[in-house]
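Tip: read the tokens left to right.
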């Protein structure tokens, strides 16, 4: 869906039934369709006008993940759309081209609603990007891949658990779904193909590679293009992270996109599968061979040459940060909240998680920031690793566990995987009020719903 200045662009949250497998329909949610939502295409320098309408029996929000918009348009938990109501928005798009997404974000229900389908991909286009140098024929050589894991009952219904130990480690399914399809396959032209990867799983971490060990090039991160293509054999994406990659199929040989099965590491032990994984709510995990599972089969149509066959040396339009010197440092510790909060999780309830020793409270402002000031945020994690997301801006990762991170390898981000400690350089150029603050939170959705989230104003 191309979203421009004109009115009439409507996203409707509706219940649906979706056939993940032939002959079996699961009850789902979607934006204007039975599962997930249309890809929204917006252009830098224009205003995107949208109406989000709620046809469900519970409140939703429309969060524009990664967009630089004011807090009143961000779609966080304070911006609820009640059943039967609608919200009209005019989003002024002024940020580099990139791959983003949108999803519902009500406190306590985000995991359930995103899992059942209230999510979709969002693309920003910019005339200053490497036009013509990159594959850009959407659905042909420029292909979105929304990757999720699901669990199904014997009757084919979606199975989901956001309490007990599933909430402690995050819910993980045992089947991989891409763009709403089980056992997916795609047919591509012969030449360079661009895949836009979105990890839209609630908690699963993917380490993508190809089964023939072929090299590919990463050209973009969460918030836009990298300065130059980065050669890789594998690529890790935590929940909510995105990446764009170029894969060369000039030899006409297809392939299979696969992922390593990354176990959940918690309390010093691996808990991603087997007996312990089942006790923790992790299930058995996808079928693996040598710890690797299938994501997508790719076939090459040799009768259709690709529009782009040469890898560019540099990527015009990559965003380079000019944030200036930081004026302060803030520290955020992601807490599993030992004690009674954790005991609730171990005995079937929802655990009480937090940041800096406090569980999320919609009535409390945790931080107050000033417009245009650059800061260093130090994020630390206890007991397990977490993907940390900041609303309303993009940031630069400075270091992981005390080691500097090369900007050219990561680019601008809005989610960072925190394994112990991470430093980011951040600045906010959009305001957020007490009535509509920005959020920072773990993007393991069960952690977010259990209180690992804070909110802040910018003025």
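Filled-in amino acids:
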């Amino acid at each position: 869906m191309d979203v421009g200045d004109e009115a009439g662009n409507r996203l409707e949250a509706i219940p649906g039934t979706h056939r993940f497998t032939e002959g079996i329909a699961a009850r789902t949610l979607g934006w204007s369709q039975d599962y997930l939502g249309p890809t929204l295409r917006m252009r830098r320098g224009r205003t995107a006008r949208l109406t989000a309408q709620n046809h469900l029996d519970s409140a939703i929000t429309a969060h524009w993940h990664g967009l630089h918009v004011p807090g009143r348009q961000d779609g966080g938990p304070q911006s609820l759309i009640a059943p039967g109501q609608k919200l009209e928005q005019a989003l002024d798009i002024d940020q580099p081209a990139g791959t983003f997404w949108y999803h519902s974000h009500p406190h306590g229900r985000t995991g359930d609603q995103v899992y059942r389908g209230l999510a979709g991909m969002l693309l920003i286009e910019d005339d200053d990007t490497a036009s013509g140098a990159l594959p850009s024929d959407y659905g042909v050589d420029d292909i979105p891949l929304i990757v999720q894991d699901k669990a199904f009952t014997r009757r084919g219904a979606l199975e989901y658990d956001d309490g007990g130990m599933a909430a402690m480690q995050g819910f993980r399914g045992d089947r991989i779904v891409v763009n709403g399809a089980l056992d997916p396959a795609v047919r591509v032209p012969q030449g360079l193909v661009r895949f836009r990867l979105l990890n839209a799983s609630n908690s699963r971490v993917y380490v993508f590679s190809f089964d023939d060990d072929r090299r590919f090039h990463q050209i973009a991160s969460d918030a836009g293009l990298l300065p130059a293509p980065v050669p890789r054999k594998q690529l890790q994406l935590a929940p909510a992270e995105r990446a764009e990659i170029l894969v060369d199929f000039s030899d006409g040989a297809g392939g299979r996109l696969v992922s390593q099965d990354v176990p959940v590491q918690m309390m010093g032990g691996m808990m991603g599968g087997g007996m312990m994984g089942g006790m923790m709510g992790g299930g058995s995990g996808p079928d693996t061979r040598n710890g690797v599972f299938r994501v997508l089969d790719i076939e090459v149509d040799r009768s259709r040459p690709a529009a782009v066959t040469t890898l560019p040396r540099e990527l015009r339009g990559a965003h380079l940060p000019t944030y200036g010197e930081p004026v302060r440092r803030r520290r955020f510790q992601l807490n599993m909240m030992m004690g009674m909060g954790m005991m609730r999780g171990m005995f079937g309830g929802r655990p009480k998680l937090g940041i800096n020793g406090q569980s999320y409270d919609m009535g409390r402002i945790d931080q107050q920031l000033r417009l245009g000031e650059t800061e260093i945020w130090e994020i630390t994690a206890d007991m397990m690793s977490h993907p940390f997301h900041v609303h309303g801006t993009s940031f630069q990762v400075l270091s992981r566990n005390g080691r500097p991170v090369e900007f050219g390898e990561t680019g601008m981000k809005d989610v960072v995987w925190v394994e112990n400690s991470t430093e980011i350089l951040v600045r906010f150029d959009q305001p957020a009020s007490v009535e509509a603050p920005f959020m920072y939170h773990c993007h393991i959705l069960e952690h977010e719903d259990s209180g690992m989230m804070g909110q802040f104003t910018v003025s």
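Residues 10-125 form a domain with the Immunoglobulin-like fold (CATH 2.60.40.420). The two ends are 33 Å apart (CA to CA).
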